[in-house]
Specification:
Chain lengths: 628, 453
């Protein structure tokens, strides 16, 4: 049942609109008619009241006076004085109609003109006043702004002045500070010199005093200054004290130098040891470096010995220019060469730690180091490339930028493909839902996700669109015709009613009812036939539901109760057109229909088995649906 | 760890003989010599006045006792208790007295640094060295006892005289490029003499034994300079502690700065371990177990206990802001000591009086920080092993070793406030000096590791 309701709710939403439009069109004249009397009624009292007002001015008695007065007025207004005059003196209050009317007309015209001009003036004045107001407002605002900016500028000026003042004071301060600093510095310097001078003076004094004290002490021959020893001790080393001679002095010197020398020797030895250790480490490092850099085993380098210096020289000149990404064979060659030099320099260092050897050693180490560095860099870059390639699933190594561009491109492509697929899916669904493609389409759909297919589908979609537009146009024509026919039908119905009344009066009620029922079956042809079709066929459920839709659609499209009759009368229900229209329409609602179809069918079947009058209910429902 | 009974002493005069056999202590005007192992009194000498200074001769045969007020020096012999020697400096006065390295001469510095009198015990001869400079460390003997460096001041200029101690022959005499020389110190191998200027100028001069200037080092100018200086036992490093709270290490080859040890208030060096001494009062009632622990540890019951805790970094070290306007402000590295194996350097910054810093000289980085509850009075390295003993003027002894840190209550009757400490030359025992008492602490090998946290 639900699909019925859904269709019923979806379809009318489109159709009702149209219907309402039609209704509005049809209704508008009637409304006009209806409005007219009200207008009349509203104007009538107005005229009456005006008449009453006029009567206050002009009565049966004072018509001539009025006329004369009006004449005067008219004259003053610039109309000819003879425009209004009594038609006949006998008939009091009678007017010469034509001039009077003319006068009135003129007056009215004038009145209207003046009214219009007044209105215009008023609007003009309004406009001008509003403009004036606006201008005043803007003026005041601008004044405010001016005031504000003036104030601002004055404030800024003030601030600037203050800042200037500040700068001046600060500059003065700085100057004074500088002076102060200089003064202080000079004071410090003078103090320092004074202090040092004083200190020196004091020191001299103190030394003088000390000297004097010393002298005094020496002169006095302090008795107390004494050593009181029981017996003299032997020297700690057991030797006797030696006489102070030049020889002794020389011995002291010699001993001193000996101790110094021994110290230096010790230090030298320690340094040598350290050096040897470092050399060992260096050698080991070199060996390891070489083994890392050139993994291929090398033959003994005895034959190369003679060329080592040249090699190393060549290397030293070449190595800075060496390209990091050079071929592996060249690298190898270089590595071999440097290895030779290394070996040699090591030998040299071992044999005769001379200047030359050291230079060579450091040179070779430097080269090796450079090589190692470049190698490491290469490895680094390789590692990063490997990572990239891993990301790209073993593709060729490409620069990063290109890679990214490629990525972007591919992303775009993917997006496009997705769009394609989506549209294809949509189209295919539509096609699948349309009855014109049945098994073929289904078969096609299974493997038609191709571009050509899509293009073709698009083309078809376009065609369908065109067709739909045609149908829409047709439908519009229909509705117009329906409007026309509606009137005719009304007349016809009235005729029929009168005719039926006559028949009813003449014939038996049985005959009449029979006829009526026949007309009704004809009227609800589509729905009444459905239950019959449904009852035997459970496997053909899907097609049935489709047929329901097919049936329901045109009804829903028409929407009005009269259209069925109209179609019937016009013979305008061609099978092909309805189906094609359905196909064009169905895209919007068929999905829900198909989704619910199974459940609905189950419900339906239950209803079917549960109660015998479900069919009638259903038909009723369909009737209602068609009516809405 | 065992402790001896408490003995009396005065003026913190207590020295172990260089051969490690005897312990000499002064009690007022008496000199007591004991056997280190048995602590029995071997000799008792009576001086003429209260002893102010006492020193063993290098051969451990004689003891010098100086009474500066009286200008008197008395020498006692262990071998011949009847032997005596009395040196009277007379009216000129005495400020300092010391043995020469050979143990047969006594060098007395007179009042006003008028002269240095060299008394020979062998010949009764007396010789004078004039113009000694009154400074932080004016005299230094080389480690082997061959040479003496003496700072002199003549005509407002600094000089250094190098004497051969054997016969007091003046070997070298040279002027130094200092404004106001503050001290001289021989390298342990006796080949390099470090001379440094007073605190007004950061300047270290390094002279060879023959008087050649090897190098000059100055870290900065216009600020208070060097406060302390220490040679590593291998003569490989020269550590210079200065008023900028830094220690600079010079190497012995180029005499350039190897590294610089800062003493920051906030320690966030992840390689350093910060040991913080935490005091806890024994709570009666709830802490029976802990009290029992204390008993087992051999501590007295009613003293505050303390232990070390390892603080998570960063650690804020208590800093006392010094009064910079006064002379000798309490800031800067005042004491430094290398361990006997050259591996560690212990330093103390005066503005962080409670903290001792231990630096690893192999890594040239901070190794440990010991934050005490009170100001560190004294720290000294074990002469044999890499362990540091320190005291903070309370009844506890603190020991640090690379394995850890321990605080030990000194179980002395009446309580000994450890003001200073001295290692026995074997490194097996420690002499703890209180104000009036002394106490020996015997460390057993391996025990230290047991008590390490």
């Amino acid at each position: 049942m639900e699909d019925w309701w859904t269709t019923a709710t979806i379809e009318p939403s489109i159709e009702n609109h149209e219907i309402s439009g039609i209704v509005r069109i049809t209704m508008s004249p009637s409304r006009h008619h209806n409005n007219l009397p009200t207008m009349h009624t509203s104007t009538m009292p107005l005229s009456k009241s005006s008449y009453n007002m006029l009567s206050a001015f002009c009565t049966e008695d004072n018509v001539p006076q009025c006329i004369s007065y009006i004449n005067q007025e008219m004259y003053s207004l610039g109309f000819s004085s003879a425009c209004i005059e009594a038609s006949s003196p006998e008939v009091s209050g009678g007017l010469n109609t034509v001039p009077a009317l003319n006068g009135i007309y003129e007056l009215l015209q004038m009145q209207r003109r003046s009214q219009r001009s007044l209105q215009e003036q008023e609007t003009e004045s309004l406009k001008s006043s509003s403009a004036l107001e606006h201008l005043q407002i803007t003026n005041s605002r601008l004044k405010d702004q001016l005031e504000l900016s003036k104030r601002e500028t004055s404030g800024l000026h003030e601030a600037e002045r203050q800042l200037q003042l500040k700068i001046k004071t600060l500059q003065n301060c700085l100057k004074t500070e500088k002076d102060e600093v200089q003064k202080l510095q000079s004071i410090i310097a003078s103090r320092a010199s004074q202090y040092s001078h004083d200190a020196k003076r004091k020191e001299r004094e103190s030394t003088k005093l000390k000297e004097r004290l010393n002298q005094l002490l020496m002169e006095k021959r302090d008795k107390k200054l004494v050593i009181d020893v029981l017996n003299y001790l032997g020297r700690a080393d057991g030797k006797r004290r030696q006489w102070k001679t030049g020889k002794l002095e020389a011995r002291h010197e010699g001993e001193m130098y000996k101790s110094l020398l021994s110290d230096y020797e010790g230090r030298h030895r320690a340094l040598m040891l350290e050096n040897v250790e470092l050399k060992k480490v260096l050698q080991q490092m070199k060996r390891e470096m070489v083994s890392i850099l050139s993994p291929s085993p090398r033959k003994p380098s005895s034959s190369f010995r003679g060329d080592h210096v040249e090699d190393s020289l060549e290397l030293s000149t070449r190595s800075p220019l060496r390209d990091n990404t050079a071929g592996s064979d060249r690298d190898k060659e270089v590595g071999d060469c440097s290895r030779d030099t290394l070996d040699q320099s090591c030998d040299h260092a071992r044999e005769q730690s001379c200047e030359h050897a050291r230079e060579q050693l450091t040179n070779s180490i430097r080269q090796q180091w450079r090589r190692l560095k470049s190698h490491m860099e290469r490895l680094d870059s390789q590692a990063s490339l490997v990572q990239q390639s891993q990301q790209r699933a073993g593709k060729e190594l490409v620069p990063r930028q290109i890679h990214e561009e490629e990525m972007e491109r591919m992303r775009l492509e993917v997006q496009q493909c997705k769009d394609f697929i989506q549209t294809q899916q949509q189209l295919l669904q539509q096609q699948l839902n349309s009855p014109c493609y049945d098994d073929e389409t289904a078969a096609l759909l299974n493997d038609c996700y191709t571009l050509e297919e899509k293009e073709r589908l698009k083309e078809e979609w376009r065609l369908f669109d065109e067709q739909r537009r045609n149908f829409e146009r047709e439908r519009e024509n229909f509705t117009e015709a329906a409007i026309c026919l509606g009137h005719e039908k009304k007349a016809f119905e009235e005729d029929r009613a009168s005719w039926l009344k006559n028949q009813f009066l003449n014939m038996t009620p049985f005959v009449d009812r029979k006829r009526h029922s026949a007309s009704e079956t004809q009227h609800a042809l589509s729905t009444s036939s459905e239950p019959e079709m449904r009852i035997p066929s459970t496997p053909a459920r899907l097609t049935k539901s489709r047929t329901y839709a097919a049936f329901s659609t045109p009804k829903a499209v028409v929407g009005m109760p009269s259209t069925a009759d109209l179609y019937r009368t016009l013979r305008l229900i061609p099978d092909s057109s309805s189906s094609s229209r359905g196909s064009s329409k169905r895209g919007s609602w068929q999905e829900s229909n198909t989704i619910h179809s199974r459940e609905d069918s189950r419900v339906r079947s239950r209803d079917r088995y549960g109660g015998g009058d479900c069919c009638s209910i259903f038909s009723l429902g369909s009737e209602e649906n068609s009516l809405t | 760890m065992n402790f001896s009974e408490v003995f009396k002493q005065s003026n913190q005069l207590c020295r172990v003989s260089p051969d490690g056999k005897y312990l000499a202590t002064c009690v007022q005007y008496r000199l007591v010599v004991r056997d280190v192992n048995t602590l029995q009194i071997l000799h008792l000498y009576t001086c003429l006045d209260q002893i102010v200074h006492m020193e063993w001769s290098s051969d451990s045969l004689f003891i010098l006792c100086a009474m500066y007020k009286r200008g008197l020096v008395q020498v006692w012999s262990l071998e011949q208790p009847d032997w005596y020697c009395k040196i009277d400096e007379g009216s000129i006065g005495l400020v300092s007295s010391r043995w020469s390295p050979d143990g047969r001469h006594i060098l007395n510095t007179t009042e006003f640094h008028l002269r240095v009198t060299v008394w020979s015990l062998c010949t009764k001869a007396v010789s004078y060295i004039k113009y000694p400079k009154a400074c932080q460390k004016g005299i230094d003997f080389s480690r082997d006892g061959c040479y003496m460096a003496l700072a002199e001041r003549r005509d407002c200029r600094d000089y250094v005289s190098v004497f051969v101690c054997d016969d007091w022959h003046l070997l070298r005499h040279f002027e130094t490029e200092t404004q106001d020389l503050a001290g001289v110190e021989w390298s342990p191998n006796g080949c390099v003499l470090a001379v440094w200027d007073s605190c007004l100028e950061y300047k270290v001069l390094l002279y060879s034994l023959d008087g050649r200037l090897l190098s000059t080092f100055s870290a900065y100018e216009w600020s208070l300079g060097i406060k302390s200086l220490a040679w590593s036992p291998s003569s490989q490093f020269l550590a210079i502690g200065s008023y900028d709270e830094k220690v600079r290490i010079l190497n012995h080859i180029t005499w350039k700065k190897v590294t610089e040890f800062d003493h920051p208030a906030t320690i966030n060096n992840t390689k350093a371990v910060v040991y913080k001494e935490v005091e806890r009062k024994p709570v009666v009632g709830s802490a029976d177990l802990s009290i029992q622990q204390h008993i087992t540890m051999g501590s007295t019951l009613f003293n505050t206990q303390s232990k070390y805790e390892i603080c998570p970094l960063p650690v804020q070290v208590p800093v006392v802001k010094p009064d910079l306007d006064r002379a000798n402000p309490k800031v800067g590295v005042s004491s430094m000591a290398f361990s006997s194996d050259n591996r560690y350097l212990a330093t103390k910054n005066d503005s962080m009086a409670c903290v001792v810093w231990v630096w690893d000289m192999q890594r040239l980085g901070l190794l440990a920080v010991l934050e005490q509850t009170s100001a560190v009075r004294c720290f000294q390295w074990d002469p044999r092993r890499p362990r540091l003993a320190l005291c903070t003027g309370n009844a506890k002894l603190y020991l640090w070793s690379p394995a850890g840190c321990v605080s030990v209550q000194v179980p002395a009757e009446g309580g000994i406030q450890v003001q200073s400490l001295n290692w026995h030359c074997s490194g097996d025992s420690l002499i703890l000096l209180g104000k009036e008492q002394l106490c020996l602490c015997y460390l057993e090998i391996g025990e230290e590791e047991d008590e390490v946290k």
